[in-house]
Amino acid sequence: MDKINIRNLDFSYNGSLVLNNINHIFEEGKLFSIVGPNGSGKSTLIKCIDALLKPKKGSIYLDEKNISGMSSAELAKKIAYVPQSEHSTFPATVFDTVLMGRKPHINWSPSERDLKICAEVIQQLDLQDITLKYINKLSGGQRQRVFIARALAQQPEILLLDEPTANLDLKHQLEVLRILKELTKKGITIIIAIHDLNLALQYSDHFILLKDGVIFASGGKEIISDKNIEKLYGLKVKIISENGNCFIIPLALKETIS
């Protein structure tokens, strides 16, 4: 089932075209990775899907309904967004921060169900030991996991994440992506912007290769070829397979190869 349908989308910053004629369908219950060099439009595309940015042209449909006609409250019950970085100076505890994810569902005060959901995602993200600590006292990696937990507490149908593994150590990078992959089995559509192709290859169902605001390839692991990587990054690579997994080994910059 199609969850998100992007049609003929353009977006500009200060008159400069950042996204150019984007068309793509995001199916329900899959993990999509948007990959590309810095400035390719990955973060902008995610913000357009979350209606944080308004496109210059084109439309985005959620369950065949144009998001431009949906209220922020309606969208908040469907879509959760985790930015690449969030600087919080508000003296809230980890638990209170995660509880904020329940805001679209709370009427007057948190119910037992709201508190239970928060406790579950705190355990899921391995945050039990810092539940009562203030978020502005945490490391960057700890804060990142708290913000992901807050998004999960929202119980969205679509989860958007901009560089979700940023600031995380290797163990928690793998753990966060494993959790995201598990969520797709519950029918949640996950869309991430990510730089680390080797991490993306282990967990993603679908890839979108974005360069200069244009999608030049999309599909499964078969599109992660040496030719496409060279076109995307100007980088020669070798792709190896081991135990059913693919790995990308950078060789040399294109311009340095004679």
Structure notes:
- This protein has 258 residues and is an alpha/beta fold.
- It has a domain at 81-155.
- Helices cover 29% and strands 31% of the residues.
- The protein has eight helices and twelve strands.
- It has helices at residues 42-49, 72-76, 94-99, 112-124, 140-153, 170-184, 197-203, 226-233, and strands at 2-13, 16-27, 31-35, 57-62, 65-66, 79-82, 158-162, 189-193, 206-211, 214-219, 235-242, 245-253.
- A six-stranded mixed beta sheet has the order 6-7-8-3-9-10, with helices on both faces. Strands 2-1-4-5 form a four-stranded antiparallel beta sheet, covered by helices on one side. A two-stranded antiparallel ribbon has the order 11-12.
- Strand 7 (158-162), helix 6 and strand 8 (189-193) form a beta-alpha-beta unit.
- 35% of the residues are buried.
- The mean pLDDT is 90.
Give a concise summary.
The protein is α/β, with parallel strands linked by helices. 29% of the residues lie in helices and 31% in strands. The longest helix has 15 residues, at 170-184.
Write the layout of secondary structure elements.
Blueprint (H helix, E strand, L loop, with lengths): L1 E12 L2 E12 L3 E5 L6 H8 L7 E6 L2 E2 L5 H5 L2 E4 L11 H6 L12 H13 L15 H14 L4 E5 L7 H15 L4 E5 L3 H7 L2 E6 L2 E6 L6 H8 L1 E8 L2 E9 L5
Parallel strand pairs: 3-8, 3-9, 6-7, 7-8
Antiparallel strand pairs: 1-2, 1-4, 4-5, 9-10, 11-12
Helix pairs in contact: 4-5
